[in-house]
Amino acid sequence: MKEHDPVSSGEMFRIPGLYRRWELPEILKNHRTYRIEKAGAHQDGTPLVAIYADRKCAPGTSSGTDA
Prior knowledge:
By secondary structure, the chain is mainly beta. The protein has a domain of about 45 residues. The chain is about 5% helix and about 35% strand. It is built from 1 helix and 3 strands; from the N terminus they run βαββ. The chain has a 3-stranded antiparallel beta sheet with strand order 1-3-2, with no helix packed on it. The chain is elongated. The N and C termini lie far apart (about 30 Å). The C terminus is likely disordered.
């Protein structure tokens, strides 16, 4: 995997909620930096992840997510 942009050393914020891997395309946007961490499992055994994003997509900004 090639990195085209340097990884942001800025502050990351947590996108509220826990997500299943098939939900990621709805959450993740191009030209953003994310950190994805394991966050346990749903009661049905499906693995869940927590998502952290760089500040340029923080809620309340013009390019933020609604999640």
